[in-house]
Amino acid sequence: MAKFTGLQSNFYTGVVEDRNDPLEVGRVRVRIYGLHTDDKTLIATPDLPWSDVLMPTSTASLSGLGMSPHGLVEGTTVMGMFRDAVSYTHLTLPTKA
Question: Are strands 28-32 and 11-18 parallel, antiparallel or unpaired?
């Protein structure tokens, strides 16, 4: 089980760069402002980690129930939070308008 990192500020904003999840479970790749450089020759989109997407409580998002897919597209600005102490695994929250 992952170690709880406390309630420190581990939120971020970023932009969706890829939604073609090879596992087809709705993950996206997000370029995180202040963490990933804008220079795609230094960190290419395929090198960004996959992020799970948090769905609203109005959908089960399980066993074919509820809304699917999430509706995020490349270029969407999102907010998220890191799930580990090294800022590698993260969870994308609802979009920013």
Answer: antiparallel
